[in-house]
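Session log. Operator J.P. requested a structure for one protein chain; no other inputs attached. Running the standard single-chain path with token output.
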Amino acid sequence: MPEIMGLQFCFDEHGREIEILDVTPVARNEYRIEETPLFHPGLSLGDIIRVKEKQGILHYIETVHKSRYRKYAWLLSQEAAESREIKDFIRRVAGQQGRWERIFSGVLIVHLPAAANLDAEGEMAAILQRFGL
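Structure written below.
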């Protein structure tokens, strides 16, 4: 089984938006993204992309297969991000075979399988309300 590796990806034609992403190789010039890219909002954890290499940088060409995860994202205060409620919520996400990421400390991104039995939006609405967000 191929291992996850960090590689440089470019998402614009001018080479200005370069991001290092954790990916898993799945075929020649194709990778499964193992985290949410910042420079390409249309891509998500689990997507399989095709790339072309130029001068040691992989340039995004197209998405071969979209992830089967449903993606949710919320902006949290520091207090909310560090709360017991969020810790319990991400434990429930993991219990549904989901994955989560926190970017810049306050952006929580949750990826749930389509068959997950968790009302992520409802639970987070209650948490956000508790913290006045």
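Operator note: The radius of gyration is 16 Å.
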